[in-house]
Specification:
Layout lengths: L1 H4 L8 H49 L10 E6 L3 E7 L5 E8 L3 E8 L5 E8 L4 E6 L2 E7 L5 E6 L4 H9 L7 H6 L5 H14 L1 H14 L9 H20 L14 E2 L2 E4 L2 E4 L5 E3 L2 E4 L3 E2 L2 E2 L1 H4 L6 H13 L25
Antiparallel strand pairs: 1-2, 2-3, 3-4, 4-5, 5-6, 6-7, 7-8, 9-10, 10-11, 12-13, 14-15
Helix pairs in contact: 5-7, 6-7
Bound molecules: 2-acetamido-2-deoxy-beta-D-glucopyranose (NAG) (6 copies).
One 2-acetamido-2-deoxy-beta-D-glucopyranose binds next to strand 4.
Keywords: Membrane, Transmembrane, Transmembrane helix
Length: 344
């Protein structure tokens, strides 16, 4: 542009032009310097980000794989009526859980995050004696009669829709027509297999870990009913799993059986003689809440004898582990206190 203009300019203007050109060159020089500094700054910032990302990524693999802590647990809601959140195990597999206990419903849902499948889905309208429980897409209808005995049926896939609609209605009733849809023939074997598979599943391990991790969350009130239910689900699964994997494990043996001066040592604390767990059926810690001698202190507050846990163990031994009487993840599971008997 400049070279085209020059021939038309007068001689007296050339000094001015020179001056302008110098100024322009000076400006260009400054601009280049500023640009250079900006680029340099950007490079430095990028390098810092890259280094921190690399460090962050390399950290987990450098650490030895330890017991998962509450790091893998995220609690999204915890109130008197609801507990919900997510838990990820050390291998990255995760579950989403929600327990709701309000005046109209008791619901408990655990979903596998990778498959989107409901591992457990329990639905109980408070006004009825019916509980619909799905475990890995096998659905059961469990009805408790006036003598607290449990009768259960399989809900065939074709009938889950109508059953769900009935359970969610304002006044759920099991009519004779609906009862016709249910299958009672294979229920014993199906229930047993379903519960056994559940106990041995990876998701069960995640539920057990999540329940234990929940204890360490300081914003979670362990007295809230949904929180207690979740602890008990974990405890139940751990016991059922232990049973599936064979009862004669070391966990049933107490390491230090010191009973002296009218008290015994249990789980880092002491129990008065009358509240000491005892030996029975090859289990040194009968009456303690937990699988064998591995104590779930948060269920009843310590590792001593609790009538509730003792009667629950007796119930499972008598009725079998793969029954709803033993694995009672349904309504009023923990209505009673630690000192009252478990309704078998
Ligand atoms: C109880 O919880 C269910 C969800 O499980 C919800 O649909 C219902 O509205 C709740 N009822 C009350 C009274 O809060
Ligand atoms: C509970 O269910 C049984 C069927 O198993 C039924 O006969 C009974 O009337 C129900 N009891 C109540 C209190 O709803
Ligand atoms: C309750 O159910 C049990 C088991 O099926 C049965 O033996 C008992 O007779 C039932 N009791 C009543 C009152 O229906
Ligand atoms: C299932 O088992 C119960 C008790 O364990 C028994 O009373 C009942 O008859 C069995 N049902 C079938 C269909 O075999
Ligand atoms: C559900 O079923 C699938 C295959 O059908 C199995 O791989 C998985 O372990 C089961 N999960 C549970 C919780 O039973
Ligand atoms: C925990 O919940 C219980 C019962 O729901 C309540 O009595 C207690 O005050 C709560 N504790 C805290 C620290 O919020």
């Amino acid at each position: 542009m400049e070279s085209k203009k020059t021939p038309f300019l007068l001689q007296e203007d050339t000094d001015e032009i020179k001056e302008k050109r110098e100024k322009r060159e000076e400006n260009a020089c400054r601009k280049t310097l500023i640009l250079f500094l900006i680029v340099l700054l950007a490079v430095v910032v990028c390098a810092i980000i890259a280094i921190s990302v690399a460090v962050a990524l390399s950290l987990p693999s450098d650490q030895p794989t330890t017991e998962p802590t509450s790091d893998g647990l995220m609690v999204t809601t915890t109130t008197q009526e609801e507990l919900s959140g997510e838990y990820y195990g050390s291998n990255g597999a995760g579950i989403r859980f929600q327990v709701v206990i309000n005046s109209t419903y008791y619901t408990l849902i655990v979903t596998s995050i990778s498959t989107g499948m409901d591992v457990i889905n329990v639905m109980h309208p408070q006004s009825t004696n019916m509980t619909m429980t799905s475990i890995n897409s096998t659905t059961f209808m469990i009805m408790m009669n006036s003598t607290s005995q449990m009768n259960d049926y399989i809900v065939p896939p074709t009938a889950t829709g109508v059953m769900e609609t009935m359970m969610r209605s304002d006044d759920p009733q099991m009519t004779d027509d609906l009862l016709q849809e249910l299958d009672s023939i294979n229920v014993n074997i199906t229930r047993q297999l379903t519960l056994q598979l559940l106990a041995l599943s990876e998701e069960a391990t995640l539920i057990i870990e999540a329940a234990k991790a929940l204890v360490e969350m300081n914003n979670v009130n362990s007295s809230y009913p949904p929180v207690r239910q979740f602890y008990l689900l974990g405890l139940q699964l751990e016991k059922m799993r232990g049973h599936s994997l064979g009862g004669a494990s070391t966990v049933r043996k107490r390491s230090t059986t010191t009973k002296q001066y009218g008290r015994c040592a249990a789980g880092g604390g002491y129990c008065t003689a009358s509240r000491c767990p005892y030996s029975r059926d090859g289990n040194d810690c009968f009456g303690m809440c937990g699988r064998g001698c591995s104590c779930w202190f948060f269920v009843c507050g310590d590792c001593c004898y609790h009538h509730y846990c003792e009667t629950h163990d007796i119930c499972c031994a008598r009725k079998g582990f793969y029954t709803w009487a033993c694995f009672r993840v349904l309504r009023d599971y923990f209505r009673s206190s630690c000192s009252s008997a478990y309704e078998c």
